[in-house]
Amino acid sequence: MQNALLFAAGLVALVIGASLLVRGASKLALSFGISPLVVGLTVVAFGTSAPEVAVSVGAVLDGKTDIAIGNVVGSNIFNVLFILGISALITPLIVNVQLIRQEVPIMIGASLLLLALGLDGKLSMWDGGFLAVLMVVYTVFLVVQSRRATAAEIEAACAEIPKVDRKAWDDNIAAQIALIAAGLAALVFGSDWLVGASIAFAKALGVSDLVIGLTIVAAGTSMPEVATSIAAALKGERDIAVGNVVGSNTFNILGCLGLSGLVSGDLGLAMAPSLLSFDIWVMLAVALACLPIFITGREIARWEGGVFVAYYCAYVAYLILAAQQHDALPTFSTAMLSFVVPITIVTLVVVILKPSSSGARSD
């Protein structure tokens, strides 16, 4: 019971910390004349991934590298399959053409890069530095690109900035810095509580730190993305719901694992064989699946959202069965590989090749 309360307290602290960080950093950036578009593309996007950074870096410092890497890989799988799935079930999601042409390929490229860097069994400090440099380059690229943005794109980016009541104290630079400091403190304490409780769960359930990182921790640290995307879907801001997930996935790999690799020192981040042989491939497959689904009519239909959620449930079920070496595992794996996956692939191919009845959307 104590560990459950500690986990819940850590989760609440992470969500509150991310919210305070985004609010303070957004207002501070605007106070210094940074455009709302740049704030939306950087501060807000990074803020929703702050829990993943806090937990992964904290796990590395505690010597629990499986939780650090499992958190990122599991979060990316959770973001696409569960968050986009639930959001699409609420309302079909419109996919901005820039996501198809630029952001999704970048997300796929980052996933491929992580796989390539991990083939030697670990993510070294130099690998982490390389990912961190790419994160800086990507951010600079977004800032430069934002200068050529249209009025409609600026309005969409501004919509991502949290709406807060304007108060005199909130416009004070000291107050903004205080919000940032409070947010960072909450993230630090929350990550410590969450990692500690997760380790206790792993021992109690008899499963590995990696499985806990891929499931419970990954879902917990993705709560800001869940809140942002579902709220956007309910408000009809459907492109934001998709962009939030894709941007967070790219940042998780480049920024989160980049920083985690840097603080790992000479030891680096050891990557479990099961991660390299299965989970990273699932993350890559999920990223690749976005392209054909996004391209078909440039929206995620409700049935596609249902498929996403069903696949996430199947993935978690597989992890649990594999961790317990359950007798049902061979039957479950055979059913997935021989029936469910082929049927899904055939359906996607048919949908892609079928001409859209509504005609192509204009960009």
What does this structure look like?
With 363 residues, this protein is mainly alpha-helical. The protein has a single domain (2-353), classed as NCX, central ion-binding region (A middle domain of Talin 1, Up-down Bundle), CATH 1.20.1420.30. It has 14 helices and four strands. The protein has helices spanning 2-31, 36-48, 50-61, 65-90, 97-117, 125-146, 151-159, 173-205, 209-221, 223-234, 238-263, 273-295, 302-323, 329-353, and strands spanning 93-94, 122-123, 269-270, 299-300.
Average residue-wise pLDDT: 78
Describe the sheet with the most strands: 2 strands, antiparallel
- Total number of helical segments? 14
What portion of residues is helical?
Answer: over 70%
Q: Strand percentage, roughly?
A: under 5%
**Which outline best applies?**
globular
Question: Care to count the β-strands?
Answer: 4
Q: Under the CATH scheme, which class? A: Mainly Alpha
What are the main properties of this structure?
about 375 residues, mainly alpha, A middle domain of Talin 1, disordered C terminus
How would the blueprint of this fold be written?
Elements: H1 2-31, H2 36-48, H3 50-61, H4 65-90, E1 93-94, H5 97-117, E2 122-123, H6 125-146, H7 151-159, H8 173-205, H9 209-221, H10 223-234, H11 238-263, E3 269-270, H12 273-295, E4 299-300, H13 302-323, H14 329-353
Antiparallel strand pairs: 1-4, 2-3
Helix pairs in contact: 1-2, 1-8, 2-6, 2-7, 3-4, 3-8, 3-11, 4-9, 4-10, 4-11, 4-12, 4-13, 5-11, 5-12, 6-11, 8-9, 10-11, 13-14
Please sum up the structure shown.
This protein is an all-alpha fold and 363 residues long.
